[in-house]
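Record 1 of the preview.
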Amino acid sequence: MKTVVGVSDLRVSGNTDETIITYALGSCLGIAAYDPTINVGGLLHVMLPLSKADPEKAKLKPEMYVDTGFQLLLDGLYDL
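->
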C-alpha cells in the first residue's frame, strides 16, 4: 500500500506493507523517521520553520511548521 503525504501533513504507520511518500518538496522540508526494531515510521512535510510566525494558523495546522509538526510526528510514533 502506498500513502502520499501532502504539504503540511504527516503520516505514521506500523504497517510493514505501507510505503509513505511525498512529492514536490520544493522549498519545503521532508522529515522521515523509522525504527527498524519495532517497524514504525513516519513522514512529515512542513513548509515553515517556526509557528510563532503565525500562531493562529499554527493552532489550526501545526503540521505546517517544523517546531510543532516534528513533535506531532514523534508523538504519533510513540503512540503506535
